[in-house]
Amino acid sequence: MATPRKSSTSKSDERPEAVVGNGGELHQLPRNGEVMTTAQGVPISDDQNSLKAGDRGPTLLSDQVLREKIFHFDHERIPERVVHARGYGAHGTFETLESLSDITVADLFQKKGTKTPAFVRFSTVAGRAGSFDLARDVRGFAVKLYTQQGNWDIVGNNIPVFFIQDAMKFPDLVHSVKEEPDRGFPQAQSAHDTFWDFVSFMPESTHMTLWQMSDRAIPRSFRFMEGFGVHTFRFVDADGKSTFVKFHWKPKQGAQSVVWNEAVKINGADPDFHRRDLWDAITAGDFPQWDLAVQLFDDEVADSLPFDVLDPTKIIPEEDVPLRVIGRLTLDRVVDNEFAEIEQVAFCTQNIVPGVDFTNDPLLQGRNFSYLDTQLSRLGSTNFTKLPINAPKCPVAHFQRDGHMQTEVPQTGPVAYEPNGYPDDVTGPRAEPRPQEASFRSFEAQVEGETRRIRPESFADHYSQARVYWISQTPVEQQHIVDAYTFELSKVKNPQIRSRVVANLRNVDEDLASQIADGLGLPLPEASEPFAPVRTDLPASPALSILADPPNTFAGRKLGLLVTDGSDAKLVKGLQDAFTKAKAMVTVVAPKVGGAELSDGSHLEGDELLKGAPSVLFDAVAIVPSAEGVQQLAKDPAAKDFLNDAFNHYKFIGLGPDATPLVEAVGLADKLDDTTPTISSAADATSFVQECAQLRAWERPVSE
Ligand code: HDE
């Protein structure tokens, strides 16, 4: 098993060495067993007791060791991100799979096989840093590529469209979804009046809310999400010619989500479910991977599409412009320090490299101001680029100087400007005309027109693609969307808001709108007046459904294996072997965390206590108690929930031959079928893992 953690060795009482200019590598001072010092490097022998006058006397202000320790502690927190505050990340590598040298001069795409260090941060949007992982929310998918020509940040989401078309509206959108300012709640939720009030007046949000109400907004984990650059960008070649490009990250693990009731329970059972999942997978050597696929097209194709490619509330269907896989991202190293790396990483949409450029998407243009600006209040200094996680891994040379927390001595000599006539050894860096591939040159575009505060006519159709999304979902997914709208709007206290949302949805699909109205007990309102005619001729795009293209593998997923004392040792081993062979993880759950004595007298270590590990934490479960053990389980609410929830969440359930009393105790005896097989042998275990590759038994009639 690979272990990506750095090992730290215990040293003698040598003093730590100073670490200087490390080229962006994260550094750790050697510390284990070292002499403890103050921040000034003064060795100290007592870090536990403050300096007092007399045995029980007052603590003295003259205790500089105490003052320094408390001073630093008092200032440990920095402002959390105004959005995307809760997140988690990991290091990895991006490998170029195909040269794109005919399309872009971007250094990393010149040669197949080029490897570029990467750091990725996934996040929820609305919740605070301490909120739970399985909020119904958009997920951030931000990738920093440390290329040889500077840092390139693709700051995307797991949903390919956005709520608004113009950056000017972003503060309103965010204020509406965040906690209501008078009461300071609800947190990490869109299910409240202000959010739905805002979007009800914002028909352009309709497309994105359909995605947000879909299972995409409750992913199984970060590893099972797609990522999207959202905006249309440009690739630029050596002649300065541009090709439009859209970025897609496709998980090799397959896309997967949980069901809503499961999400609610996971938040209680393990609020860190997503970050733990990423950590566990990487530390177990199961490195998640995403293909980077691009949609490439020119002006002619852009003009032929029924939507404006500058409108971030629209996608370009994969069926119209196919995806081309050009690289692969592998995350293979967990962080050494959450604060230094995940909290301090600063993504900026403005960070692009030669060969990449922006388009006039008005949302992107606004973002290019916001991300740099926000780092100042979050990280406190213009020198945030010197933090190891943000520092480029290529040479950096400029005359920017000073500022708070300047950590480098950038140059010697008198020169901090250009042009200058000083000799070569002190003249400093020079910016001179260079070919496109050698330095960044903004794409040369023709601009004309009057300056006006307007929205282009070409952005006016707000419903046609929302309809395409809806008709592209499987019936199961459509039902989840209806359920999610009904739940969210049920939390809205003002019935007029509910009505306005449903009025907008009538322009997407009558059936969708009437099902939601029915679920809310709301008289069906008149449809709202669309700004542009809704196109009902656009075909479905199967690529928009998660369930239409299942991964058909249980690899990377987790089996919860419930055992008791006396469980059949051969069966337990058969299950462990079959799932491990299928590259899945197995967690042994037992009434006592110490584990169980199996039928052959061997001891099986437990990973989790039954009361602390509900089945929502697993992708499938196997329940193989002994004939005696099951009697206890049949009376245990935790065991009953374990089975009942797994059943109601459509999970595959393997049942040992003696599990019947538990099955009867939860009233499922007449509901067993192929998706709840009896496991009596190692061969059964092997076919069970194959069944589990379907991930969920969606045909199961859980509500009957
Ligand atoms: Fe962001 N966004 N955003 N956003 N965004 C931030 O930058 C902003 C938008 C996204 O893991 C902030 O460093 C504006 C779209 C991600 O550190 C801030 C607008 C997309 C992350 C900001 C948008 C995103 C952020 C807060 C509309 C998907 C987390 C902290 C014009 C394509 C990055 C920070 C991380 C974070 C502004 C819209 C994705 C305030 C003004 C569209 C993944 O700068």
Automatic annotation (TrEMBL):
It holds the Pfam family Catalase. InterPro entries: Catalase, Catalase_AS, Catalase_clade2, Catalase_clade2_helical, Catalase_core, Catalase_haem_BS, Catalase_immune_responsive, Catalase_large_C. GO terms for molecular function: catalase activity; heme binding; metal ion binding. Keywords: Heme, Hydrogen peroxide, Iron, Metal-binding, Oxidoreductase, Peroxidase. Its EC number is 1.11.1.6. The active site is at residues 84, 157. One of its GO terms (biological process) is response to oxidative stress. It is an enzyme of class 1 (oxidoreductase). SUPFAM superfamilies: Class I glutamine amidotransferase-like, Heme-dependent catalase-like. Residues 1-32 are annotated as: Disordered. It catalyses: 2 H2O2 = O2 + 2 H2O. CDD domains: GATase1_catalase (cd03132). Its cofactor is heme. It comes from the Bacteria. GO terms for cellular component: cytosol. Heme binds at residues 81, 121, 170, 367, 371, 378. Residues 37-426 form the Catalase core domain. Residues 1-10 have a biased composition (Polar residues). Decomposes hydrogen peroxide into water and oxygen; serves to protect cells from the toxic effects of hydrogen peroxide. Belongs to the catalase family. HPII subfamily. This is Catalase.
